Amino acid sequence: MRIILATPDFPPWDGGVSRVAGELAHGLTRLGAKVIVLCAKQTQGEKASDLAKPFEVFRMGLPKAKALKPLFAWPHLFSLIASVRPHMVFAATWHPFGLAAALLPRGTGFAIQVHGTEIVSHKFASPRWRWLMRTAFNRAEGAVAVSNYSKGLIEKVGVDPSRVAVIENGVDPEGFAGQRDELLAQRYGVAGRKVLVTVARLVKRKGLDEVIRALPRVAAHVPDVAFLVGGRGPEEANLRTLAGDLGVADRVIFAGFITDDELGPFYRLGDVFVLPSREDEARGEVEGFGISFLEAAAAGLPAVGGRSGGVAEAVVHGETGLLVNPGDTEGLADALLKLLGDRDLRTQMGQRGRERVEASFTWNKISARYLDFFEKEILGGVRV
After folding, report:
1. What pLDDT digit, counting tens, does each position of 192-219 carry?
2. Could you tell me which of 3, 6, 52, 191 has the fewest CB atoms within 10 Å of its CB?
3. CA dihedral sign of residues 183, 187, 190, 191
C-alpha cells in the first residue's frame, strides 16, 4: 500500500503531532507499506534527519497566515499524488493538509487524524472555520481519533461518529526497559534521591506549575525529593521563577530537550511520572491522549496525571497510576506522597502499566490497526 502521510509537524521537530506522525510512518513502513511523508520546513537539521529515514520525506514552506496554509499545501499535495499515485492520503491534522486534501477530486481516498487541540483551538472557533473543519471531515472517507475523548470533540463539530475510528497512540517499549543509569543520575544531580520526572512541552496546559506548587508539601515529608523536567517551551521562565518564589529552585532540574535516544534512560531516572494536564481555556488547548504516559509505563513507572481530556484513557486510575483533578494542588501532593511513600505500590502500578503497553499499545500493533482501518474503511476492503 502506498500512503502519503501529510503532516504539519514531523521529526526532528518536537511535539505530540510530530512524534505520532514519525512513529506511525516508521510503524507502517515496518509492516510493508510504502510511506511518503509531506510536511513543513521547520528547523535546522531536517535534511540529515530525513535522509536517515527508511521512507521519503518531502518538505515545503508554509506561510504563517493560517488562511493561506491550505492553499499553499494543495498544489504540493496534488503534485505529489500525481507523481507517486498513492492508494490513499492520510492527513495528520485537518488543517492545513486535511483541508487541502478536501480540495482534491472526489474519489481520492483520504482520511484525517484527530488529536484534540486542533479541534478546540480558539484559532478555529469562528463559524467560518468550524464550517471548513466540518467540510474537511465530511469530504474525507473516514477519520481516526486518538481517544474516545477526541472522537467526542469531532462529533460536536457535526461529523458522523460512525465514520470515526478510535486508534490510540503507541510506544516502542524496547527502548524504555532497563535499570537506572547512575552516571546519568549524577549528571542531573538526582543520584540517591526520590525523583518525580516529566517529559513534556513546557506550556500551560501541561500543569507543571501545579507540580512545583505541590513540592513544598511533598518535600516536608520526602526531604530528598527532586523534580526532573525534560522538555522546552515558552513556560520555562515562568516555571523557574515560581520555583524560586516557593523556595524549591534547588529541587527542580530543567534538563532541556530530550532526544529519542535519550528518552528511555531519562524516564528510568524517575520513581514517579507526573503530568497533571488541564485544559488551557485561554488558548483552547487540551490533552487529546498523552503519549508520554505510555512512555512512562513502558519504563515501568506509575503515573500521576490530570483528569482532563483523554488522559483517563492513557492512565488507568488505581491500576497504572493515579488521576487528580486539574488545579487541585493538595490532591496532587496527596497522590505524589502516596506513591513516593509506597515502593510496593509503585512497583505494582509500574508493572501493570508495562504489561498494558506490551499487550495493546506497541507501535507495531497500533500501526496494524491503522492498516486494517485503511483497507476496510478507506479502500473498501481491498488489500493492496
Report:
1. 999 999 999 999 999 999 999 999 999 9
2. 52
3. positive
